[in-house]
Amino acid sequence: MALESLDRSPPPFFRVGFAPLTKLIFFGVLSVVLMFGDKQLQFTQPVRAGLATLILPFQWLVLQPGQALSSVSQYFESLDDAQQKMKQAQSQALMQSLRAQLVEQLQLENQNLRLLMGLQSSVATPSQVAEVLFNVPDPYNQRIVIDKGQLKGVSLGSPVIDTGGVVGQVTRVYPLTAEVTLLTDRDQTIPVLNSRTGARNIASGDSLSGVPLVELKFVPASADVKEGDLLTTSGIDGVYPAGLQVARISHIERRVDISFARIHAKPLADMKGRHVLVLQPTGAQVTTKGKAP
Amino acid sequence: MIMTRREALLLPVSPWFIVASLMVCLVLNMLLGLTQAIWLPDLLAVCIFFWGIHQPRRVGIGIAFCLGLWTDVQQSSLMGQHALTYAILSYCAFTLHRRLLWFPIKEQMIQIIPFLFLSEATGWVIRLTTGDDFPGWPLLLSPLFETLLWPAANFILLAPQRRAHDPDDNRPI
Predict the structure, then answer these.
(1) Looking at CA atoms only, how far is residue A274 from chain B in angstroms?
(2) Which residues from A are below 8 Å from B98, CB to CB?
(3) A8-12, A130-134, B18-22: which has the highest mean pLDDT?
């Protein structure tokens, strides 16, 4: 055995690089600068997008076992289950066709009325279906990653919905994927309209004893709010189209010593489904409409 | 290489094995991350700390910082948060590397607990100062599990260096 192959060669005394403390201070300052830039100035987005694209193959690799498992379990799902699901889907389709016929008539009526009153006709929102890849591993935040990104025309701030209602909003866009912050995330806020009273409120993400919900902020204790009220998007924010279902009020707490009521609502979106619909923000459509001749 | 008592003479480490072990830990961390449990150990931190102790010239603060940036993007946490945590961990490993290997494994575990807690605490402080909620006490389990992984890390990561280099039946060693 050659002697050099053991770790017996003399250490290179004169080229050990910088002292570890110097390195620590350098990288410490660098990471503080990065953190500040990420939080306050948002200049790290290109670095993040580049690295995220680099990481994508690894993420794909990691997701494969789970997906294989779920496809196998789907294959062995019992016939009874499948038949029951089909029946459910059929009855749902019947109910929806009834509503759809009504909607068409109402839309026509609405259009005529809008023409009569000289209002701008409402725009149809372009949308695309995306698949949910995974929940973001960070346990402190509630976000999901979808498989459509910048290259497919997903833009920052796009509303995301599923069969139940509004899921959230696109908060980070990468070339091939995008990150959606759920309504129940504590940093996420959505303007809503109480469909019973017509009152407009702001709902932000909150959790009540561990259950992720949304909370209505700054509602006076005397306001007319009942449990079971439906909250929909108001359409005045330039992001969400009007009339999408958001949540249903589940808890109301009125206390004498606080002038605001504590109101929690349960989101109607499924949030656990595999497919979502990404809409274009309404503001973007209005501006592009304005620019076109 | 400082040898502990009854420790076999180790072969030189293969740089490719270090790279491979770090990559495997990255991928396993991704897999564990999908469960979103806060008490699960950070395998990459253990791996960085281990190589920082055993091969301080090869796995230093710079590599730890880059792996931290990678983790930040992958977990979509604040940019630089894991980078700072891993850099501090790597520096701790450097300050400890001349002393730690003189002790048997159990005493090594007792000595590394504070450093793993320190790196975990750095992460919490960053999160709390940037406005996240405190996620709950189960996260104290994470450094404990990391410490319990230390013997396993010793066994697995030193295994390629322990194999006989040139087997010969006529030689006593």
Answers:
(1) 15
(2) none
(3) B18-22
* The residue to which tokens 């004893």 are assigned: A209
| Long-range contacts formed by A41-46: CB under 8 A, 24+ apart | A44/B79, A45/A172
Please indicate whether, in this complex, the C-beta atoms of A31 and B68 are within 8 angstroms of each other.
yes
Statement to judge: residues A46 and A105 lie in one domain: no
pLDDT value at residue A292: 41
Are the beta carbons of A55 and B73 separated by less than 8 Å?
yes
Query: Distance, in angstroms, between A215 CA and closest chain B CA?
Result: 16
A3 in B contact zone (CB under 8 Å) = no
Report the 3 state secondary structure along chain B: CCCCCCCCCCCCCCHHHHHHHHHHHHHHHHHHHCCCCCCCCCHHHHHHHHHHHHCCCCCCHHHHHHHHHHHHHHHCCCCCHHHHHHHHHHHHHHHHHHHHCCCCHHHHHHHHHHHHHHHHHHHHHHHHHCCCCCCCHHHHHHHHHHHHCHHHHHHHHHHHHHCCCCCCCCCCC
pLDDT, position A1: 46
Of the partner residues A11, A35, A37, the one whose CB lies closest to the CB of residue B81: A35
- Per the structure, how many domains does chain A have? 3
**Structural domain boundaries, residue A45:** 21-76
**What does the mean pLDDT of chain A come to?**
82
What is the Cα B38 distance to its own chain's centre? 18
Q: Which residue has the tokens 């891993």?
A: B86
Local structure of residue A197 (DSSP, 8 states):
T
Please check whether residue B5 is in contact with residue B141, taking contact to mean a CB–CB distance below 8 angstroms: no
Asked whether residue A15 is domain-assigned, the answer is no
Residue pairs between chains A and B whose CB atoms are closer than 8 Å:
124
Tokens at A184, concatenated: 């129940």
Over the stretch A227-250, which tens digit does the pLDDT of each residue have? 888 888 888 888 888 888 888 988
Pairing state of beta strands A245-253 and A230-233?
A: antiparallel
Interface pTM, i.e. ipTM = 0.83
Q: Which of B38, B74, B87 sits opposite A55 (nearest CB)?
A: B74
A45 within some domain: yes
Is residue A63 located within the same domain as residue A154? no
Q: In Å, what is the CA distance from A197 to each residue of A32, A223, A279, B120, B157?
A: 48, 10, 27, 49, 65
**CB contact at 8 A, A249 and A222:** no
Residue A93 lies in a domain: yes
Residue in B with minimal Cα distance to A46: B73
Closest residue of chain A to B167, computed from CA coordinates: A1
CB contact under 8 A, B75 and A186: no
